[in-house]
Amino acid sequence: MSSRLIDAIEKNDLAAARRALVESPGLIGADAHGYTPLMHCALLGRAELVSLLLSLGAQPEERDASGHCAADYARARRHDDIASQLTLAARPRADRPFFGAEERQLLAGLLGSDLVDRVLRVANQHAGPTPDRDPGRENAPSQPAAPAEAVAGRPAAAQTASDRQPVQASLQTKEPPPTEKPVRLEDLIGQSDAKSSLDQIIALARVNAERRARGLAAHQVTLHAVFSGSPGTGKTTFARYYAQEIRRLGILAQGQLIEVTRYQLVAEYEGQTASKTAKLVESARGGVLFIDEAYSLKHGQDDRYGQEAIDTLLKLMDDLRHELIVVLAGYTEPMREFLHLNPGLHSRVPNLIEFADFTDEELGRIFDGMCARSGMQVAPPDRALAVAEILKRKKGRHFGNAREVRNLFERAIAQQSARLARLDLKSLEPAQLAALQYSDFTEPPDDHDAARPEGQGAAVSASLAKLDALTGLATAKQAIREVADFYAIRKLRGAGAQAHDIGLHMVFVGNPGTGKTTLARLLAGIYRDLGILPGGHLVEVDRGGLVGGYEGQTALKTRERVEEALGGVLFIDEAYALTHGNDNYGREAVNTLVKCLEDFRSQLAIVLSGYPAQMERFLDANPGLRSRFARTLLFPDYSDEELVAIGRNMAEEHGYRLDADACARLRLLLAAERLRSSESFGNARAVRRILETAYKRQASRLMAAGRSAEISPEALAVLSAADLGEPGP
Question: I need a labelling partner for 585 at 20 to 30 A (CA). Which of 137, 235, 517, 713 fits?
């Protein structure tokens, strides 16, 4: 055997071995002792090289000077799969298929099943029996004699017959380090479109590899790819599968997967990025370079270091196109923008593969798989509730898909351990140690009662009690309760009712100080406790928070605020201020909002707030918004009695108390201000302003009356009529 072929076999370099054999077909034969490359590959467990040699005509029935065939060498080292493959290949033609199922499937895809079946029938009819042999040597000793140096991984040609030792001695040698467990496409959940796209690329590469092996001109195929999608959708796992399959075809020498980000490619100082990028690309040579969040390579047009990394990468992708595959990965929209701004990359990476978010059913299967692999048991009711916890997070910002499932599962393991640690561990049954219950999947971990569904009901009741405690707002309260009742009943009806939904978006109209913002904050908590939206947070903005300062900035700014509110409530105060006559920026914000309402359906609630007349004109001018906000809640002005009650509550929150005279004085002050202000009356805001003035007057009154040490706690807490002041003109 030639040193070139020996070196390729030793390194398990499929591509180098293929090139050597195609250029010099004679290398496939035996040396002076009858030792063949096929025997050497069988001995070392090189399954892919064995398949290559068989496809190029190697004879598995050949025997060396000691009477051993390649299958014997494989059995001696416990490579049973290779031994079975060689035994089958050595059978007479009449006893085995003309070619395997994988080859038939490939040809059927190219030529059609009918034509392939006819070829098979004719081929099997004309493939006469081969001479009788005993290729498998079924009755041969399990440890046949073989050249010692061949067993150790070197060819027998350098040895004499007296140097040969039994193969049994080879079993004492160190086995090669175990390789990473192969990725099986059928084991990966979901992503049918991504699987189909990747299979097409691999099929084309497989046909090309076969053309090269037969001396035919290969198609010009670019194997670089873009994997885009949300986090946790399997992009890295699919990249590993891609590298594995391309390596099996002999296109890549090693097939390793090198995962990097901007940090590994871009240097801190000018002039160092090119060498840093080139060095890392060299480490991936013969395999796949996986660049995660590839769009982060360049931060803005002025990022010279990032552009230097991209330019270096482009050149090396051309120079090493037969020795390297580059996979660019990241979120869908940023990746599209990144490729658009870097046409050199776009033209070199034609394979665009989109990874969809997992469906609810697929997320459940991922959860089941994690439990099974860890030996954990979850009762069906608790399993359903755990999956519901995952789906609640699906409505939040940047949902992590399988990562979200993994995070929840790992937290459950930690919380189960904390729960069991309170017990006598030695007295627990194995089933108790392996059981996860619903409280293990929820936060906080110690609140096991609140974790149960009935505990969640208590949380909803507490939120609704806060709603009921608000002064006035009877109509708005009733509308919120109707929404809460709908979702509570939908949960009781089960999975079949989940598809039916009602709009979460609302319009709040009323004068200032009528409780619109307060109710929006409570609404976010109620939606969270009902399991509708996971965040429970409120993002408050006005026109300035949505509209940019120059063209093109508004859409981006508006979308950022929407994404910030995902999983919660976006409250847009004085929404009518978005459009002023021919205000193009404001209209851009409105159009972006309309689009986001479709893109993030059921992932957030948007509340538009403002004065009644202005909001009516605003919605009339934007029918796309009105049709998406079917529920409008009217917040009427508070009565004087309601405002006094609000004043008492505000004072108590700050540790003060209004005496009877102060309450009467507050009523007079509010009535006078209502008359003066008319349409601009501030309702609860007016109360707050009066009380803030009263706090300062009380402090001055008490300090003027005597030493501070002599002031009683009662005097410190009471606000008098004098503190509130006299009604103005």
Answer: 517
